[in-house]
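User: Assemble these into one structure.

Assistant: Restating your components, then the assembled model:
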Amino acid sequence: MKQHTYLRAYMAGIVVPTIFLLVVMTSYCVLRYVYNFPVPVERIIVFPMAVVPNLWGLWNMLFVALRSRWHLSIGLHGALLPILLGPFGMVMLGILNVSVPDLVAHALPIAAPIALIAYYLAWKYVVAFLNQVVEVA
Amino acid sequence: MNEQNDKEIQELLKRSIAPIVDTELRRDLWPEMLKKLSHQPVRVPWFDWALVAILSGLLIVFPGVIPALLYHL
């Protein structure tokens, strides 16, 4: 299997956020429509649904393209993604005029290291496994 | 007498065991062998276990991060 390496890398990259989105969307819908929790799902969903999976796929393509030159481990490569996604997500919230709840706003300074650790582990174990399955790494 | 017995036994064996007709392999087993040889069980280093513990601890102490993390994942 030597053809379409980048396409396979993209597909392996989008798996985690795409599956995760189903779980998150189900939780949000239950919160919103069953418990009437004030979360404007329709406004914020565009970022995790469209931007995040595509960025994961593109980031994995970048890893495959650069791995022979940079020799960066996939975990560290994945841990760099929140540095791009974090500010992008905040900008999107600003553009969509979504107010961040106080509980979340207070925890935001600690969110960066948490995101780095979570992404490092997800990329090192899950995305690396998927790359092996589709034979791109 | 012994030789005759041997021959008889040989004949009996030949008759009782059906000859193998199709001796060719239906598929190449070597790629699977290579895959098995290269397959290594996942070993999680202590550093990653420590990171999992830190992550769990932080999420318990700062539950407000969870929605932000879900939004970005």
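Chain B touches chain A through 20 residues (CB under 8 Å).
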